[in-house]
Amino acid sequence: MRAQPKASHFINGRYVEDTAGAAIDCVYAASGEVIARLHEATDAIVEEALAAAKAAQPAWAALSGTERGRVLRRAADMIRAENRSLSELETMDTGKPLQETLVADATSGADALEYFGGLAGSLTGEHIPLPGGDWAYTIREALGVCVGIGAWNYPTQIACWKASPALACGNSMVFKPSETTPLSALRIAEILSEAGLPDGVFNVVQGRGAVGASLITDARVAKVSLTGSVPTGRKVYAAAAEGMRHVTMELGGKSPMVIFADADLDKAVSGAILGNFYSSGQVCSNGTRVYVERSVREAFVARLVERLKAGVVMGDPLDEAVTFGPMVSEAQMEIVLGYISQGIAEGAVVAHGGKRADRDGFFVEPTVFTGVTDDMTIAREEIFGPVLSVLDFDTEEEAIARSNDTVFGLAAGVFTQDFARAHRVVKAFEAGTCYINHYNAAPVEMPFGGSKLSGVGRENSKGAIENYSEMKAVYVGMGDVEAPF
Ligand SMILES: NC(=O)c1ccc[n+]([C@@H]2O[C@H](COP(=O)([O-])OP(=O)(O)OC[C@H]3O[C@@H](n4cnc5c(N)ncnc54)[C@H](O)[C@@H]3O)[C@@H](O)[C@H]2O)c1
Ligand SMILES: O=CCc1c[nH]cn1
């Protein structure tokens, strides 16, 4: 199988190569086969991308919002028309089942382009009346050159979630995908270009952390948006702060899901599956600490295990009958297996799965632990794999306090038929993205992001516009100018 792109980088409206950059092998996670070889951006490539973005941005910002939005909406239509081939590419890039990528990746990217394309024409400042006939107005201005840096779990979605609000506001972008999944962002750049995006407005460069670091500190860069882990977020935020750059940080989590005894148990099991095993558990907002009210814990675990036994079909993720794919890489598989061993060593009980699957590729069985306590490593650290921990609780106050006892604050969910309780519980959650009787949906209309160590700023929704533009305020004096002397 081959998925070799035309070249490693996309700059100024065309593919660009520089083989002097270190090799990046793209590995199909279901087989271990190398399907493409790309090269890290050299200093010359980074310079070319930043220069292109800097040169292209003023003319792009000078278009009307309606004109910018038209390009984004055309790109959204093209992505939808090409959904199957983009989904196959995403599956090859990540190992996620085609059944999943067909509905959740390119389509989510298209949603973002369509939504922010639609908003672009409505972005304005405001008129502010002041005493004595004076007045003020505000001008919403683009920030300039933005840098986007992506994680490997949703490469297409991440590229589009960052590009769409940035470009709608009149910014340009240099995007660096994760070195583990370098392929899909290139095709998104090409589609944007074919949709009429002026050359240089959206550029893609490949590379590992050092390339990302070199982008952030460049004087031409006004904003950095990272999707990644908390340790990387700390470094990127600190580097951006040196130049007082704007940031959006979409980082990791260890989110709770609270299931009360009165919940519809089948819905709660579905929520737990969506919140732990979709994308083989490689979703930032996963609700991996599943607090179940003691009286229904056994019934919940029994139904969950039954659903996993009946529904998990492992195999080649390009086969649409497959529902469960491999970890993105051998390294990630080893990290997840390490956490499973640690869970067992610390006394948790494997109710389902618990080991590497007996097949080629980087597959880990969907794993359910019971008997988990809050102090265990598997209940405290982000695993980023298909490992669900069941914890018992007795009271609402206890469930809330234990849910919040974490440094993370990305997401949280509650399952109950008592809506007064549901709203009370989400009000008390220390998390940026909350769910009632659902889990992990991420529609573009809803803000997405974390509090505490899980991040800064929000993606999606009208709110993202605030993260990609700034207000210039203008005071207009209409009468005498009174001065003290
Ligand atoms: N909150 C969200 O929306 C969200 C979404 C997806 C993934 N994530 C998080 O991402 C993590 C998994 O992804 P990952 O392993 O790719 O994360 P990572 O932090 O290892 O890497 C993320 C990106 O940062 C780059 N990078 C690494 N060091 C850098 C540096 N010093 N300067 C600039 N860039 C640097 C990497 O090359 C990569 O492109 C998990 O923690 C997950 O929760 C968060
Ligand atoms: O990985 C995090 C982003 C996300 C959550 N649900 C869908 N995408």
From TrEMBL:
GO biological process: glycine betaine biosynthetic process from choline
One Pfam family of this chain: Aldedh
PROSITE patterns registered for this protein in UniProt: ALDEHYDE_DEHYDR_CYS, ALDEHYDE_DEHYDR_GLU
UniProt keywords, alphabetically: Metal-binding, NAD, Oxidation, Oxidoreductase, Potassium
Active site positions, chain numbering: 250
NCBIfam families associated with the record: BADH, PRK13252.1
UniProt family annotation: Belongs to the aldehyde dehydrogenase family.
Name of the protein described by the UniProt record: Betaine-aldehyde dehydrogenase
Organism in which the protein naturally occurs: Boseongicola aestuarii
